Queue: 2 jobs
Job 1
Amino acid sequence: MMQETLVSQGMPRDETSPRTAAVCAEIEHAVRFVVEDAPPYALRPLLRIDSGGLARVLAGASAACLAAGVGLGLTIVSTCIEACVPRTVSGPVVDGARSAACLGIVSKSLF
């Protein structure tokens, strides 16, 4: 496929084979690591800071909210699962609850 791309870019066909071999030699180590040696999962700590605002349009009042927390992130191949417990640092508090649990799942494309 690379040889055909080089030909379509104007390189003579007899020069494409050595150029393709050189490019493959350059990236072989990285490709081998990803395919054979890279772990299929990763566990990492998270530090999360969230900021937002609430506005009451009719009353003209507003409140800024700030929360900070810690958690864990688990990546399995191309899916990330993140869980954390942020605590409200400033802003309105409902029924005295300053903490909540958060869970997020994101699937990333390999291509």
Job 2
Amino acid sequence: MLKWVGTVVGMMVLGTAVTASGAQTATQSTVTQAPAAQTATPFPPVSAKNFTAASPTVDEVNAFLTAIWGYDTTRIWSVAAILKTKAPGVSRVVVYVGDKANPGKTSQTAFFTTPDGKHAIADQVIDFGAKPFEETRELLQARANGPAEGAASKQLELVEFADLQCPHCKEAQDTMENLLKDFPQAHIVFENLPIPEIHPYAFRAAAEGVCVRQSKGDAAFFTYAAAVFDKQSDLTPTGVDATLAAAVTAAGGDPKDAAACAQTDLAKDEIHASMALAGDLSVDQTPTLVVNGQMLPVTGLSYDVLKRMIAFRAGQDGVVVHLQPTLSNIK
């Protein structure tokens, strides 16, 4: 697994411990005019002197925060400042954050927005705006061409970037199976992202999986992948041949044909295309789950929270889902 970049905005986007509905909604109409007075909140009063930048507006910040926090109504916030910086057009946004369940506990977070109004920056660059995930969503709808299961429609698309030799990816497979059951509207895509620097047999495993899919179809690929994950600890110098052969056989393929196919440029090019897609999206860990353009740490959230976030993202994009309670014996 590649290490997560630990950033304030990254945590906000990835939903590690964040939820919200906006506490402040007034529009900042000039560079010197602060938002209008708000109803009682646990936050310090807003001061006009803390709003010196022309953009983004308070409404734009609130729309962005709603897009990433709106799945859970226990979090509240107040935009405390939108400040000019020395960098032309770059603004510093400061936000107070609280929890309705703990009214005495508040925190502060800050990020920068770029002059084009399309990106926010903490330690990394993320998309900004009322629909910050739309560009990524459209890119994946066009280019995420890996094995798929679930619905044919891409209106609710879940794209998993995974490495077949990654232990955390193996752990994530039960979650992916459960999501397939809980979201029948979802089109779920598997994109190979082997990390050969730390998983020496990941690329070969991915290539043989590509060949299984080419000869036997998408369902066979998922059977193959499940078999590889099941015997992942046997992907060793002495065990890799037998492990992959057994997985190909389980998927209904011919091990010798798959091994030969995996050496072809056609198979390798498909994996490189998936890796290039991950690079274009700055996906820097496996597993990564992208839900209609929003990147989520599939192994870093409780299943209930993950479901809630997917349902919220679907609703934001006009897809109606009906959440069912998570069973205690779920895989």
